[in-house]
Write a structure and sequence with these properties.
- The structure is a single chain.
- The chain is of the alpha+beta class and 418 residues long.
- Helix content is 22%, strand content 28%.
- The protein has seven helices and 16 strands.
- A six-stranded antiparallel barrel has the order 5-6-7-10-9-8. The chain has a six-stranded antiparallel beta barrel with strand order 11-12-13-16-15-14.
- Strand 5 and strand 6 form a beta hairpin.
- Helix 2 crosses helix 3.
- It is globular.
- Bound molecules: 4-(aminomethyl)benzoic acid.
Length: 418
């Protein structure tokens, strides 16, 4: 009841300033509590890696499974990856499971072992041992109904670190930084390149000055172009450097041998391919490791995207640059490339064209010998071309012409054993 003229003993609490203060304090306390709650529920999460080896008994190990470039290797790996993904997505760990990737298929007896890494995300407050046993039991259950893959049921799950995961990947070919961490985020094109983005890129230097690009195909072999050595065949003048900067390289290694294709013809640019052997093998790490080589039979689809990387000049007649750059281009069919308004028949079957319609993205002088790479369905990168020639740089209808690596797959194996 409202009684005018009387002051209640409690009225000082209703002082509007005190009320406002109390409300503000309440809101602040509530906000902090909510923040803490959200933090512990959502942001206290950490990623965890696990390794497991699946012994597949009813798939016979053949040569076709010895390289990630074959369709057999891709198919089997994809089957295993999707089986694991399905098992976790149908389990109560679905919100914690992130990815599974077959790092390697190898022979055991007459069967195949798949080494798999799996990535999860859960709160630090979860008990690691109990998470591991939940993961193990879901995989165990999966094995009992693995369709037509017969898998040894005694598989062990081991908890591994991010560094272990990285080491597993860098021993194999073709993994870029995003795959090393099984990240969902893809590396998006910028023009300049971060350290480790193209870990197989090599700078071949003549008396310590960048001269040509190259690509690491094993720990001691670099694939490049034959024309780089036309005037300088002496390996003692050459070094290979690693890292995105040619002036502050991460590593510099002497060249032991240079093997250019014996049928390289400067007039037609036929067989513009060479391999160089490093004086000592490089130790692979996240920033330095090898690309995958395609199968001889792999067809390169016109219109599919590819990346060319190098320290070449930005305009025809310009100087090389000191920081590595990348360009996204698309494969162009040899017929289109050989049109009368284009190269008019100079592009031979062992060559490959790649560019963009405007011409504006292209390899140029100093990019020679460097790689043109493509990503496969499992996010592994393959070298499909070696920068070889072109009419100047960035000219419409005159895209970059590359040595078609698939045509030389057997030559590379003969020369290097890779
Ligand atoms: C060169 O002279 C060169 N636009 C390399 C690549 C291309 C042109 C010239 C392709 O080394």
């Amino acid at each position: 009841m409202y009684r005018p003229g009387r002051v209640s003993p409690y009225s000082r609490f209703l002082n509007p300033f005190a009320v406002a203060l109390a409300v503000i304090a309440g809101v602040v306390i509530l906000a902090v509590a909510t923040g803490l709650l959200i933090h512990f529920l959502a942001f206290d999460k950490k990623t965890y890696f696990y390794h497991s080896s699946f012994h597949i008994l009813n798939v016979r190990y053949t040569d076709a499974l010895s390289s990630p470039a074959t369709q057999e290797y891709r198919n089997l790996s994809e089957r295993i990856e999707s089986m694991i993904t399905r098992a976790f997505e149908e389990s109560d760990l679905r919100s914690h499971f992130l990815r599974a990737h077959v790092v390697k298929l190898r022979q055991e007896g007459s069967g195949v072992v798949a080494d798999v890494v799996m990535k999860f995300r859960y709160s630090r407050r979860n008990n690691g041992a109990s998470m591991k046993s939940r993961i193990q039991s879901i995989l165990q259950q999966m094995l009992s109904n693995s369709g037509n893959l017969e898998i040894n049921s005694s598989n062990e799950v081991t908890s591994i670190t991010g560094q272990d995961t990285e080491n597993l990947f860098t021993q194999e070919c073709g993994a870029r930084a995003d795959l090393l961490t099984l990240s969902e985020e893809r590396i998006l094109g910028g023009i300049l390149v971060d350290e480790g983005e193209w870990p197989w890129q090599v700078s071949l230097q003549l008396n310590n000055v960048h001269h040509c690009g190259g690509v690491l195909i094993s720990n001691s072999w670099v694939l490049t172009a034959a024309h780089c050595f036309r005037s300088y065949p002496n390996p003692q003048q050459w070094t290979a450097t690693f890292g995105t900067s040619t002036i502050y390289p991460r590593r510099r290694v002497r060249i032991r041998t240079i093997s250019a294709h014996r049928d390289y013809r400067p007039s037609t640019r036929e067989n513009d391919i060479a391999v160089v052997q490093l004086e000592r093998p490089v130790t692979f790490n996240r920033n330095i490791h090898r690309v995958c080589l395609p199968e001889a039979t792999q067809s390169i689809t016109p219109g599919s995207p590819a990346y060319v990387t190098g320290w070449g000049s930005l305009i025809y007649g310009g100087n090389s640059v000191s920081d590595l750059r990348q360009g996204q281009v698309r494969i162009i069919s040899t017929d289109v490339c050989n049109a009368p308004a284009g190269y008019g028949g100079s592009v031979l079957p062992e060559m490959l064209c790649a560019g963009v319609p405007s011409g504006a993205v292209d390899a140029c002088q100093g990019d020679s010998g460097g790689p043109l790479v493509q990503e496969d369905s499992r996010r592994l990168w393959f070298v499909v071309g070696i920068v070889s020639w072109g009419y100047q740089c960035g000219v419409p209808n005159h895209p970059g012409v590359y040595t078609r690596v698939t045509s030389y797959r057997d030559w590379i194996r003969q020369e290097t054993g890779v």
